[in-house]
Amino acid sequence: MIRPQPKPGASDDTDLREQEALLVRECIRQMGRSLEPDRAIREMLHLLSELLGLNRGRVVLPDPARGDLAIRYAYGLTEDEMRRGRYAQGEGITGRVMQSGEPLLVQDIDREPAYLARAVARTTLPQETVSFIALPIEVDGRVGGVLGVHRLRSRHRRLADDMAILGTVATLIGQILQVNRLVSERTANLEDENRRLRQALEQSQQTPIMHGIVGRSPLLARALRQLEQVAGSDAGVLLLGESGTGKELFAQALHRMSARAAQSFVKVNCAAIPDTLFEAELFGHEKGAFTGAVQARAGRFEQADGGTLFLDEIGDLPLNLQVKLLRVLQEQVIERVGSQREIRVDVRIVAATHRDLQKLVAEGRFRADLFYRLNVIPIQLPSLRERPEDIKHLVLHFLEQLNASHGRQVALQPGAMASLVAYPWPGNIRQLYNVLERVVLLAEGSQVEEAAVDYALVTEAQGQPVDVPPRRIADAVEPAGRTPPAQSAVREWRSVGGEEGAAIRAALSAANGNKSRAAQALGLTLRQLNYRIAKLGLR
Ligand SMILES: Nc1ncnc2c1ncn2[C@@H]1O[C@H](COP(=O)(O)OP(=O)(O)OP(=O)(O)O)[C@@H](O)[C@H]1O
């Protein structure tokens, strides 16, 4: 067999092609190690040097912490040289390539002023003419870094070939960086998610919750015990407590615990029904009973037959309607408006009010007989002020709900929680929920800081007639970054280390006893200043 004789120089060419092919093959093999970019990229730079004589390869990447560029991977550079290799945007050859996204070739580094020789000193390089080649590395469709190598100018390989192979290597390095960025992003997301789930799990294990009612304070526990005791009977229950203390929630829990749980729970808000519609609403009406009664309709009593009727805001029921309600409660029969037919109903009555019914009775505004009928088992629900230890549990419970319903992953920093616990919550749990919802919706990151909560509380307080502890107001008049007008006075006031009295006196004396001006100087409202004066017993 006759082997074809290579032309002169062809064997050199073949060797070079083989080396190139070997380099590309090996570099592609390194792609399998994408998750270890240090090893994979260093090995690629090693092959460039070993097989093609493109030496001291380095990959320069942006350093987000310092806002410049730094050598991240290298072959043939000492640690010191790597450390020295930092470039501002647009600085030197590397900075320019990063900025323009175009490759640059310096034929002779000794004749190019833009070449900085910062990482590798000229003295450590060969005496002959040295070139420097820098190429952009594309990551996610953008210039994500720069690949740079030294090259002896007089060599047997053509420059165009070197440029082509370097382009291929830069692309492969870009792929490795892209995979890594993706993996670290996903890992960070998963870690975040994990942390949040762990927190949620801890919270749900810690949050004492019975029948959907959160809290473990003694006053709440007592109310819950009473609820459980009476759940089995048909006795009427009167739930007493301020607005937003959970009266409706308790009524629902009572219904669910009772033997009537499979039947309906029907709510009537006595304060919301106009007098003229009250009878029709409660007892129903026949077709044509009054204008607009186009068809017969069952009232709330009938709808609740066999179940529970929750009469909310019973204290707001006008006297003439109290008589009608009493009659039904006594006889357990109703007559629809426009009909004389008696319909027997079997309902358990749970009533609720935020008013002092006994006082209303004494004033002749609530019938005593109806009061005794409803007040068989009174259960007093504590306000949030009386059970501050429950606030934290409620906050964690609502936070979990709000995160789920708004697709957020918000957590509160300790200071933020402390602010929520310190707030007086005149509107009780409903108000707490509303404020938290606002905080979750407005949260910019996953961690809510104290200042953000304080700001929400101040906004809340401004819309509510409520005395907020002044320290909170002073802290939170403006969100971080903006300067409240009276900040210096506030700082002074705070710097007296709790001696509020002295600060208030000083402000009052500076304002010649004018409280409005003193309040302004302290960064408080007049109402808050009055509150502090009264609380501290100042004259
Ligand atoms: N202990 C609690 N645990 C969890 N959520 C609660 C608790 N108490 C009240 N809530 C929630 O707070 C909100 C207000 O409660 P609810 O409507 O029962 O109060 P209310 O006393 O009936 O108020 P109002 O007198 O103004 O009608 C509801 O969303 C309720 O689910």
TrEMBL record:
Domain Sigma-54 factor interaction residue range list: 213-441
Domain of life: Bacteria
TM ranges: none
Molecular function GO terms recorded: ATP binding; sequence-specific DNA binding
SUPFAM superfamilies xrefs: GAF domain-like, Homeodomain-like, P-loop containing nucleoside triphosphate hydrolases
Coiled-coil residues: 180-207
Keyword tags: ATP-binding, Coiled coil, DNA-binding, Nucleotide-binding, Transcription, Transcription regulation
GO-annotated biological processes: regulation of DNA-templated transcription
InterPro entries per UniProt: AAA+_ATPase (IPR003593), AAA_lid_NorR (IPR058031), GAF (IPR003018), GAF-like_dom_sf (IPR029016), Homeodomain-like_sf (IPR009057), HTH_Fis (IPR002197), P-loop_NTPase (IPR027417), Sigma_54_int (IPR002078)
Protein name: Fis family NifA subfamily transcriptional regulator
Organism, as annotated: Sulfurisoma sediminicola
